[in-house]
Every structure is written in C-alpha cells, then in structure tokens.
Amino acid sequence: MKTLVAKVRNLNLFHPGETVVVAVSGGADSVALLDIMSRLECGLHLVVAHLNHCLRGTESDADEAFVASLADNYHLPFVSQSCNVAGLARQERLSLEDAARRARYAFLEQTAAKYGAASIALAHHQDDQAETVLIRLLRGSGGAGLSAMAGAAGEKLKRPLLQVSRMELEQYLKQRGLTFRTDSTNADTAILRNSIRHELIPFLRRYNPRVSERLAATAEILAGDEELLDGLTQASYHRLAASEDGEVRFQLEPLLKEPRALRLRLYRSALVELRGDLMRIGLAHLEAIDRLASSPRPNAEAKLPGSCRVWRCYDSLFFGHATAQPSLPWELVVSGEGRYPLPGGGVLLVERMTRPQSLDTGSRWSAFLSPEAVPFPWLLRGFRPGDRFTPLGMSGAQKVKDAFINEKVPPELRRRIPLLLSEGEIAWVPGVRLGERARVTSCIDAVLRVEILEITP
Question: Which residues bind ATP (predicted)?
Fold first, then answer.
C-alpha cells in the first residue's frame, strides 16, 4: 500500500540517512512497521532490535528466532537481549506490563547508543492509543495522562503508526504477503489492556463505530493543550521555584496566589526534578501537598512514594529526598580550646582571646563567652524535650523549643544544633541566643570565642 508508506513518510519524523533502531517483537504491528520503514526511500540505516521477555518459554524463543530471520531477509543488523521480566517485576514490585516496558525501553536506548542511532521507531498505532486513553481514564488521570502517547517523545522515541488503525495495518500485511507471530497472551482478558481491546472497545463501537479514531483524536487535542499548559507551568516554575543542594523551595506567599490547577502542576514539576518521573504519584498526593502549603501550621511534612518528602517551614515549602535522622542521642566533651567535629555535621571552634571592644560577632553562629562564668569542661549535646535556659538579658528561664519557634528555626535544623552546657546548665544555643550565665562583663580582660561552622542548611 503506497498510500500507507507515503502517509508515514509525510510525517517527516526521520532525517534522510539517519540510523534508526526499529523495535520488532514479531507481532503484526512491528512487522508492518519494519516493512514500511524499509520502503520510505530516504536512505535510512535500520537496526532491528528484539527483547526476549522470557515469559512464554519456547514461544518467546521462537519469536526471537523469527525476528532474527526477518532481519536477515531485509539484510539488516539484528540485536537481541533476554530479560527475566517476571523476576524484575518481583524485585521492583511492578506489574508485568510495567516491568516489561522498563526493560524494553532500557534495551532500546542501549542499542541506540551502541549504533549511534538518532531515533527509535515503535509500532504503537491508533488503536493502541485509544486503549491507552481508556486505561488511564479508568485508573484516573488528568490531561497529561489522557494525552497518552506522542508521535515524537523526547529526542529519540518515534511512533510513525500512531495515525494508522489496526485494520489498515492488517490490510497492509495481507497485500504485502507478510507473516508474523501471534502472542498467545494477547487473548487473556484478565490483562486490563486485553480486556479493553476485546470487550470494552467492541461494546463502545455500538455507540460510535469510530470510537478508537475519536479517542485517538481526543488524545491529540489534549496533547496540544498540554504543550501549551506545560510551557506556562515551566515559566511559572522558573519564576517561583529555587533549586539548591538536591532540594526545591517555593516561597509560600507568591505560590498560594497562583490558581490551584497551576499549583498542582508546579508540584509535579518539582517532583519530576527530584525523582525523574511521577511513578506512583497520584492526585491524592498532590492535594496533600497543597493542603500542607495552605495549612495554618508553620511546620509540617508529608512523605511521598519514591523516598521523597515535602515539608513546610514557616514561609517556605520544600521538596527533597527522605533522609534517615539519627535515632541515638549524642554527647561531646569539650575540654578546652581547639577544633571539635560535631556528630551531626559541622565543626565547633573554641579560642581564647583579648576582650574586643564590641561583643557583637555579626553572626548567630558565633559568640563571646566569659571563661569564669562557663568553666571547662563543656558538654555539647543535641536538643532534648524539656530543655530550658535563661536567654541573655532575661531573668526567667525559657523553653529551648519556644526559642527555636520564636527564631523560626526549621525543625530539621533543630535536631542538628548542638547545645553548649557548662556545669550542667545551657550556656549557649547556637543560631538562637547566648545564655545569661555566659555573659561577658566589663571587668573581664579575656574571652572565649566560640563558632559553629557548616551547620546551616
């Protein structure tokens, strides 16, 4: 069918003379794709790639042998690889379909890299697109999911048959006299995609005989809308999000001024930046993040699939990777002047010096202490519930927790701040305030200068 070959050629998905990896399973769709690609008459260098999923024993091996023979008939390079997809699914806790998809795309990318291919051609067609739309609709999806598959995805993936129906491909195979393999599992309606293909779509054709075409057209329209919305989202993301040290941060005031729909898209963008994908992230997770952002609580967090967490700290919303917090209490004895590495990260510096004219160090992480009022040895330890101290200039004791809150110290930082104790009393809370008992009086000639390095987030 010259018209079908011309239809694919007119898509202009491939550049003359480029190397293209063609994914061939041996089924009808991929056999038709390979034949069409071989007849495009634009000097393409084709490589036939086949992944043996090892799911059907000798049947899978026969598929591989068939594709090898097919490649030989076309005088094309053939690359194959075997993968224990069932084992991968168990290991990664994925469905067989998801595990097979991951293995397949990884293999195709490796093959493309090996041959220097600019494109990978996949045999998805119009009916596959319609099935994908229905699957995502049934599972619950927004516009991005219902856009389904793109004709050109990323830099390499190309789907030349996305506007071609299964019926057109069957007619093409018949007219060309091409044989193909039939996967016996395609008839198993316990698999969702097969059930949609053999039961749901035939039922829907009673209402619209062209339902597959209409669903595919809807996906194409939504894809155009998504392209526009994605551009708007990325512009807002660059304006509102700041990325540093493996974290993404939003200032809450401007974030909450944006429409809810845009905020949810911004959360998706932040998660993609951290994780690389949105696997197992659903609407419920995005709504939980939005509730966190608008909560009256100044500090709270939510854990997400994929070892990610989102936390609110006063006027900011953070996205980052979940990290294990030290569970054991720690203590460090400071016997005198010197440099002391801290268990939670950072360094304490202690030095004796002549009393300066000004006792203002210019930093919350350094202070001048009276050697007589806070004699060695000191004890450094982490914060404990119930800790109290008397801040400089005050006469009454205050909870350290309240001081943290007043100074808006992030909860994750509170766990890392070492409290300095002398004779059993807290003399300094770094990052917050010096204690009254460590006050340097006018009659003191020498002071102890203490500084915490590399403790701020």
Answer: 25-30
| The pair of three-digit structure tokens given for residue 418, joined into one six-digit string | 């070492």
Of 425, 452, 445, the residue nearest 370 (C-alpha):
445
| Residue 117 neighbours by CB under 8 Å, 6+ apart | 18, 19, 20, 21, 47, 111, 156
Length of the chain: 457
C-alpha 338/C-alpha 319 separation (Å) is 37
User: pLDDT tier at 442 (50, 70, 90 boundaries)?
Assistant: confident
Q: Which residue has the tokens 């930082």?
A: 413
Residues of the binding site: 25-30
Tell how many helices (H) and how many strands (E) occur in the chain.
Answer: 16, 22
Strand 19-23 with 119-121, pairing: parallel
| 138-142: Cβ within 8 A, 24+ apart | 138/192, 140/282, 140/283, 142/283
Alpha carbon separation from 361 to 54, 80, 341, 364, 434 (Å, rounded): 68, 67, 21, 8, 12
Q: What is the pLDDT of residue 3?
A: 86
**Residue 2: band (very low, low, confident or very high) from pLDDT cuts 50, 70, 90:** low
Of the ranges 6-15, 153-162, 404-413, 422-431, which one carries the lowest mean pLDDT score? Answer: 404-413
Scanning the structure block, which residue is given the tokens 């050109």?
152
Residue 307's pLDDT band (boundaries 50, 70, 90)? Answer: confident
Place of tokens 């953070």: 318
Strand order of the sheet with strand 119-121? Answer: 78-82, 45-52, 19-23, 119-121, 157-158, 152-153
Domains of the chain with CATH codes? 2-220 (3.40.50.620), 245-321 (3.30.465.60), 331-453 (3.50.40.10)
For residue 206, what pLDDT is reported? Answer: 97
Give the chain's mean pLDDT.
92
**Which residues does the annotation place in the binding site for ATP?**
25-30
Tokens of 73: 């008939």
| Beta pairing partners, 99 | none
Q: Give the residue from 332, 357, 361, 340 showing the smallest Cα distance to 449.
A: 361
Does the global pTM surpass 0.85?
no
Whether the bond between 209 and the residue before it is cis, its omega within 30 degrees of 0, is: no
Q: Report the C-alpha gap between 215 and 31 in whole angstroms.
A: 25
Rg (CA), the chain: 32
